[in-house]
Amino acid sequence: MPVRAISLPTSFASFGHDNTGNSSVRPLKIPRIKRAATALLRHGYRTPSNHAAELRHQNSLNSACVLPDLVIRKIFLQCAELSVTSQSDEGDAWSWVSISHVCSSWRRVALQSPDLWRYVDFSHPKWYMLTWARAKMSALHVIATVTATNIRQLRCTLQLAHRIQDIHLISPIEKVHPLLESLTHPNPSVESLILDVRPSQIPDVIDIYAPPSFPTSYSGPPLTKLKYLELHHAPFYLLTSRCINLTHFHLYDLPLTERPTLHYFLQMLENLTHLRSLTLDRSFPINIEFNNITTGERRIELPQLENISLAGNMVEIGNILTCLAIPPSAHLIIRITTLMNLTSTISNFTQILASHSLAQVEYVPLDILVLTGHEFCERYIDIFSPNPEYRQSLRIRAFSAGSEEGGAVIDLTINPDEFDPNDDGMITALTAILTALPLAQVHTLALQDLEIVTQSSWTSFLQPLTSLRVLDIAGRAPSGLVWALLLNARSHGKRFKDRHDESQRILVPSLEDIYLHNVDCSSGGYMVAPNSLVNSHRDLDDSRFLDVLIASLTHRRRFALCLRSLCIAQCTFFLRKTVEDARKVVSYLICDFRNVMKEETYDETFPARYPPQWRTQHAQLRHYHRLRALTELDS
């Protein structure tokens, strides 16, 4: 059937180029292409045939129809690759083949692209037969969402296809079982296999996979071309002894019924001598305690490993780190998903982490440390009513200039699943982890939205940072940090004045530059809770963040520790007077005065700012201006 020439709407014509011929900044996204192509086809089929010549002329003037063939080909390939997410059981599956009917030029490019038709379309039987026929004897890309309408075609393709290059399936667990046998013994030409199984939505139903009908070990020649294997909520037996050439193995959400023993798990990993990237996300062997690891279990060597990502509790992560001999150049990514039983597990975990990081730092010393805090929602709903949806996380990233690959050499996230409105566990875990890391050569510390750490905790954090020269602060103001610097400088000055022996050295003596980005300079800090070392969200300090920072720099200047530069960029609620005070204690000051706070708007009764839901006359808050009290003592 001849292709109809149809006029293109502006929304579709803007893909790839704008009206001036320049590259468009709008990204190519499947939903937008899907809507535009559907509208175009609907419009085109209603167009009388005698208008074909006119519409063909209009299309020739439209930028989308005259895109370079290379751009059109890239659009087609992206649609074919990502169409796996656009199929469902509801009958609204969309075929990537539809966009080849947009106009004659697009149709021509599609028919002249043999690589495109290798993406067999399983959205509908007619598209399946069409793409299957045009693929001919080429290596296929089997990318699909498993549904009741295509499971038969998928099973036949996996069993009978001459060659299959890539497999990427998304399937509910109820429909994946007929395909597991073919996936366990895949086509010898497969290079990449991704199976994403969605758990059952029925409450209290345990997902169980039946064992394979025949053994998976030694059931065929090695799969020499299979390099990439990614399993989500899938049975562990899909990793067979034939997968000896894997370079990437990623395992997510392994069901508890599928978790192997530690011995078998390590035995399978030992075969992957070419492995460069390993991910274990809540997919560890049968849980055992630190002290119960078999002493006779030798460590598995993975000599080519470049990245290892582990997500689970501290016991599971610690066990794997103990059993694997990780090259010191490998990037270590850890996500702690729970802080339950923290006091009994944190010590062993940090010992294992310290052992690995010490070996790593000899190869690539750490020189940049980035600490990031994140709250997923408001901590309180009304004044001090805890929000049941509240979540928070802390991320620790350590970088090294000597690393051959980009990214952090250590990337550790504390992200507990369960609701916990307190900061106790977070600060305890952060303190222990930072103590375990070798930070003596770190010269830059970047803080992003990190406000929960108290002054006493910051004091212990800063002690090993003897080489710190640059402090970069963004987002929420870390009041505990500036108080640690101020109290340390006052304590150091008092001992020096009285000529007593120095029992506490000055913190970060090499500090030269401080950068503030998007910080509320008037924000107040938390007071330490009674009988605890963590924050009290009822006891607040009315000392303003920038005032405390300037006071700490003033005291440090007395010991010839003058800051070289202070940069205040895109910050809010700071007084011009405070800036003038800063000029006296730093050599160079760079300040953005666009957000300066007028003197007449300054409220001496409530000098510091807090989240809006806390500012109420009925809240039982104990405000205390610590900086004012210290100033009065000095006078």
From TrEMBL:
Gene3D superfamilies: 1.20.1280.50, Ribonuclease Inhibitor. InterPro entries: LRR_dom_sf. It comes from the Eukaryota. This is F-box domain-containing protein.
